[in-house]
Amino acid sequence: MKKLVILCSIISIFAIGESVPQNVDLLGSLNPYPNLDYTDIWGYSAAGREYAFMGVTGGTSIIDVTNPASPVEVDFIAGPLAPPYEWRDIKTHLNFAYIICEGIGAGSGLQIVDLSYLPDSASLVNTYDNTFTSAHNIYIADGYAYVVGTDLGGMHILDLGLPNNPIETAYYSSSGYIHDVYVWNDTAYASSNNTYDLVDVTNKNNPQLISASINIPGTYAHSGWLTEDKRYFIATEEFNVRDILVFDLVDRSTWDLVVPEWQTGSNSPVHNVFVLDDYAHISYYEDGYVVLDISNPQLPQIAGQYDTHPGGSLGLYTGAWGVYPYLPSGNILISDMVTGLYVVKFNPPVTEVENELEQINTFQLEQNYPNPFNPSTKIKFTIPFLETNGNADVFTTLKVYDVLGNEVTTLLNENKPSGTYEVNFEAENLPSGVYIAQLRAANQVKTIKMSLVK
Questions:
Q1: How far apart are alpha carbons 100 and 112 in whole angstroms?
Q2: Residues 239 and 330 in one domain
């Protein structure tokens, strides 16, 4: 069992109850090859139907999950059989699936599968092997494929203008071996063994390293995903040392480590993470499928869990390998290395509204989030129950001042009933600096400092 280490208040460790689902319903499952191993999973939708692509020993299983209670395999794309053949990764672009594998020998390379004839069948139309024959991961963005963990170790950029006949535009090697990659807005977020790297891929012929995180001893930079606002990078560390880390990338030249460690409290290592809205969906090996509330990325909180591998966590690399949370139905796909496909529904926890008879007696102004910020931030505050002459409303003002005491703006100036509120402070036209938010209600005053960094 891991030691529970407290680093101020920025490390969160949450003990997951063994085999007890939390806010997750099982809709269906399928174990089409009980004697084989499974790896990654990806989703696809077309013509009102939904599909799962699941890596299997010897190939890729294509499963119709439109009716999640009764998944049906509709085709199987055979792949390389030479070890380590079972490690497959799949992404889709237009009506094609792109499958990579660390297998070698006959059939190795980037498999390109035409999905036009689903749900009846899918067909392998080409295998790209011009510049690599094995790879660990692939990401597709804006018509380009980024293939990493290849024979050479770095990142190959492929133009998918002709979807069944990719053309390599560049090979990037400055980060050394890259295990996984996420791409957004012409920037690649590369997990490069010892560090997480930012790579400018605006010029598809000449990628350039922007910055790298610090090398954290004993860890392995495995994978990661950006929050919806594209400010924070949620990273997974596969050596079972720190599990999940969060970096603030408001300044792209500096990887600011704001959460140096998040663990479930068990002994399970972590694998892959995907972000949708305010939640991080994680395949957590022996802990199964884990969901974190990252509405405040600097304070991740457990929001859901479904254990696909009951029986405890022994620190082994088995259990949930992959997760896919982006199907139009909202259903979530999980691949377990032993038991195959799971289709689940995550039910976000509902914050209970306090009974009106339960009076709020706390006057509070919380620290704005995010902070530092640019160009906007949220300010949350609570007004207590203060009945005056039969009127429970409280005249409330929320104003912002600069450090010289000059009023910048009034965010609130009205009667408000007891409760908790949140307002936006837009500072697009203000210069960088420190600003003071002041909340007044009845005879009470609260202030906070906010940092605008442009």
A1: 9
A2: yes
